[in-house]
Amino acid sequence: MSAHILVHIHPPQWLALPFIILLLMIASGPLLYAALWHKHYPKVSILLASLVIGYYIFILHNYTAPIATLVEYIQFIALISALYTASGGILIKVNRKATPIMNVGLLITGALLSNIIGTTGASMLLIRPYIRLNQEKIKIYHIVFFIFIVSNVGGALTPIGDPPLFLGFLKGIPFFWTLQHNFYPWLLAVLMLSLLFFWIDSRHAKNRTHNHASVPTGPILEIIGKRNFIWLLLMIVAVFVDPNLFTGVPAIHYHGHDFSFIREILLIALTYLSYKYAHPTALQSNAFSWAPLQEVIILFIGIFGSMMPALSMISAFAQSESSAPFITPNTLYWGAGILSSVLDNAPTYLNFLAASMASQGADILQTADVQQYAVGGFANSIVRLKAISIASVFFGAMTYIGNGPNFMVKSIAEQLGVCMPSFVKYILYFAIPLLLPVLFLVWVLCFYWQVL
User: Fold this and answer.
1) What is the helix (H) or strand (E) element at residue 91, kind and residue range?
2) What are the residue ranges spanned by the domains of the chain?
3) 3-state SS of the chain: helix, strand, coil percent to 5?
């Protein structure tokens, strides 16, 4: 996945326009021309990606970047599809009335679970029971805070939690580094978001009338389709079948890189098996449909394909001598964060880490350098790595496309009847007023003052 860092033939700046156009259409389409957008977004997504890929291949004669992007896309879709399918076959029923404290408990549980089965796994497993729990009073903010806490911020403690952290692990960062150094920013963000949610939910709860005749009875928790937890566990294990971790794993060797394919074959096989042997009641009660996954697959063709020039520009600046004076924990936090909001946070993380290391004479391609960087072998290297890691994970919640689970959660919520805000409304009405102040406080306390 680090191929973006090594591409030396950079595209013209105007080639970033297809990516900008796609973002604008994702933002405006469902709001201004919904019927036209829903009918033709596959064509738009594929066309814009094709324009950029075609320019790379036929004009720049650069085959490395498109092939690396294709590999990244396949890896992304294989994991998303597997976790979506396995979780769809697990029906979780919470037989109690929803209360603000119960909702907070579920969100915090999701934040913890994100570090075990990833933000995607936790999101797909919990979003349906969360919506069912609140079905009589579901509001947009319920889903938004779920995206904030479970789909993004929660996954900052382990390399399993979010793709950029896993890439850091593959590069040589110790497995428990994230737990050791990201814990206080994670705790601060999760607590602040949970308290903010509790305050908003409590205010809305006071204005609701309750139907006392429909008090749920029976056990607090019912789970149907438990066998799918086995498939889910096997999928998490399959993530580690990587040639960069185990030398015996077969790989495709291309321009000095070892690309996994056994892992993706395993994930696709597990996807099929988890659906074929899923409990029918669980699938039916979860209203399982391929539509949300199909939307993500198609839209991210456009996103992955058209964002290559933007990533290339970031890489070029990151490795230039002119970038060195600007590389501080503060600029790394805001730079990696803002760009992770609209770009794939995995290559963004790698580019910022490469820039940070290069500014101090270290090489991201050398495992020994990465290991030394992680343990403080260079000046301020730990706080720099911490800034990149936290920003790449946390800022993914700023937009629907900042992290893979976001769009999935949005699509599932809409499928289950929740009227979700448009791309722009999500940012303006929720991300900026609710999430950004939390991200600002994390920056002040953890990176500006460095008290946590």
Assistant:
1) strand 91-94
2) 3-448
3) 70, 5, 25
